[in-house]
């Protein structure tokens, strides 16, 4: 990894483009006419309601957890039931949909879990983004309350939180804001499976307090019958001192999909190791990952791989920000893309904004097609062209799961989700 010593007080290593010149998907698609906008309960936002109702939080029979996990089959395939059935005693299932939050939690958990619905604070995920702030205002108009979950674990207990966000939606519009606060010294695993509708803005926030540890699997897999969608997914991760965040993302979008993720370091010696596998076969997909270092001695790593087929178009807009008060930071951001069609397209724009002198940073992007030499080599070993192609594609993205703990349930779930996404690719 290269060491960068900067003498100037302010330097952006990549040109700073005007807001709209690099934004490939028109953000105005997320601003419906006012008279068409619904709130998170399916009512028009123009209705004269004296107060907005909060999310209705209901605790359900924990014995029904496995049955309700069946909604995840779209993400994990038929293996869904076998993945989770042996870990029901540590699962907290949170189903979000249409103004209601249903919670299924094992009676044997010793951890302290608290849920509440509170007013949503308007904030842009991308720093200093006017369009991001405008989108946040539109989200607040439709989902004025935020679902907040506070978790404090005891001993070596490691709960598995599964959040299904509008997976079985009946509305043309979906909105929600979810926040998980992981208490000091706590540890947990988290799976968030995002749903789709004709139009949707879904946001979640993760707050890791001092010495907290969280591993996340973030999934959105869209099937062929949901092509005409406009989906905006937003995430902010706030890392306290000595906290540790491990993250794997699996996206198989359709229609117009935009993902913005900002990992913010607010405590010293925090670390984040993130990866993403994107399988784009239709529509437009924009991904804007941000690593924002505000304090010194933090470590962030992002590895994103995109597979783009048919006439799909993907955009990577990576950004690493090292504030003046964050020397001795280490940041890495790598993007690699595999094109499976002459009509597929990827636009990559990795960017760095670095203010202090004493930092170590690396970023880069590469795009290419399947190597004919690799296909030939595998054919000489007895594999058909289709088999060889499938092996090369799978090995290309399999690396994105390497940071997950070996033989863990989270890794098992991620492998099945990735297989489900790869099955959406056109056959050779």
Describe the model.
Residues 1-23 have low confidence and may be disordered. This protein starts with a strand and ends in a 6-residue tail after the last helix. The protein has helices at residues 19-22, 65-68, 73-76, 80-84, 130-142, 372-379, 385-398, 409-422, and strands at 3-4, 11-12, 56-59, 91-97, 100-105, 112-119, 145-152, 160-165, 173-182, 187-194, 199-208, 213-221, 230-239, 244-252, 256-265, 271-280, 284-293, 299-308, 313-316, 319-322, 329-339, 345-348, 351-354, 359-369. Helix 6 packs across helix 7 (385-398). The chain is of the alpha/beta class. The strands form two sheets. A twelve-stranded mixed sheet has the order 1-24-21-18-16-14-12-10-8-4-5-3, covered by helices on one side. Strands 2, 6, 7, 9, 11, 13, 15, 17, 19, 20, 22 and 23 form a twelve-stranded mixed sheet that branches. The chain is built from eight helices and 24 strands. A hairpin with a 2-residue loop joins strand 4 (91-97) and strand 5 (100-105). The longest helix has 14 residues, at 385-398.
Strand content: 35-45%
* Ends distance: 38 Å
Q: Mean pLDDT, as a whole number?
A: 88
Main sheet overview: 12 strands, mixed
Integer-rounded radius of gyration: 21 Å
Pairing-aware structural class of the strands and helices?
Answer: alpha/beta
According to DSSP, the number of beta strands is 24
- Biggest sheet: strand arrangement: 1-24-21-18-16-14-12-10-8-4-5-3
Task: Report the oligomer.
Answer: single chain
């Amino acid at each position: 990894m290269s060491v960068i010593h900067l003498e100037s007080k302010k330097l952006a290593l990549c040109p700073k483009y005007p807001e709209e010149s690099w934004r490939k998907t028109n953000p105005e698609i997320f601003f419906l006419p006012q008279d068409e906008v619904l709130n998170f309960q399916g009512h028009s936002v123009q209705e004269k309601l004296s107060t907005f109702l909060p999310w209705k939080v209901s605790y359900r029979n924990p014995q029904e957890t496995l049955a309700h996990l069946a909604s995840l089959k779209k993400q994990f395939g038929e293996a869904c039931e076998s993945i989770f059935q042996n870990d029901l005693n540590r699962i907290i299932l949170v189903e979000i949909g249409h103004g209601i939050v249903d919670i299924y939690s094992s009676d044997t958990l010793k951890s302290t879990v608290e849920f509440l619905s509170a007013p949503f604070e308007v904030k842009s995920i991308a720093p200093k983004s006017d369009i991001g702030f405008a989108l946040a205002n539109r989200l607040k108009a439709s989902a004025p309350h935020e679902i907040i979950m506070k978790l404090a674990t005891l001993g070596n207990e490691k709960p598995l939180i599964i959040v299904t966000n509008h997976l079985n939606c009946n509305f043309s519009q979906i909105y929600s804001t979810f926040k998980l606060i992981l208490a000091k010294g706590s540890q947990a695993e988290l799976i968030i499976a995002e749903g789709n509708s004709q139009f949707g803005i879904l946001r979640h926030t993760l707050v890791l307090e001092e010495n907290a540890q969280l591993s996340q699997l973030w999934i959105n897999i869209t099937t062929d019958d949901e092509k005409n969608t406009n989906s905006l997914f937003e995430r902010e991760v706030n890392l306290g001192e000595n906290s540790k965040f491990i993250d794997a993302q699996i996206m198989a979008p359709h229609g117009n999909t935009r993902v913005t993720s900002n990992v913010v370091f607010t405590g010293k010696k925090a670390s984040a190791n993130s990866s993403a596998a994107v399988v784009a076969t239709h529509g437009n997909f924009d991904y804007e990952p941000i690593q924002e270092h505000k304090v010194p001695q933090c470590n962030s790593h992002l590895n994103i791989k995109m597979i783009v087929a048919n006439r799909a178009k993907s955009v990577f807009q990576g950004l690493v920000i090292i504030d003046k008060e964050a020397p001795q930071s280490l940041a890495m951001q790598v993007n690699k893309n595999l094109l499976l069609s002459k009509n597929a397209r990827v636009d990559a724009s990795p960017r760095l904004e670095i203010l202090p002198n004493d930092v170590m940073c690396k970023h880069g992007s590469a795009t290419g097609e399947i190597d004919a030499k690799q296909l030939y080599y595998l054919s000489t070993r007895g594999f058909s062209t289709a088999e060889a192609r499938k092996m090369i594609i799978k090995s290309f993205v399999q690396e994105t799961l390497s940071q997950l703990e070996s033989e863990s349930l989270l890794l098992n779930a991620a492998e099945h989700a990735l297989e489900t996404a790869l099955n959406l690719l056109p056959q050779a």
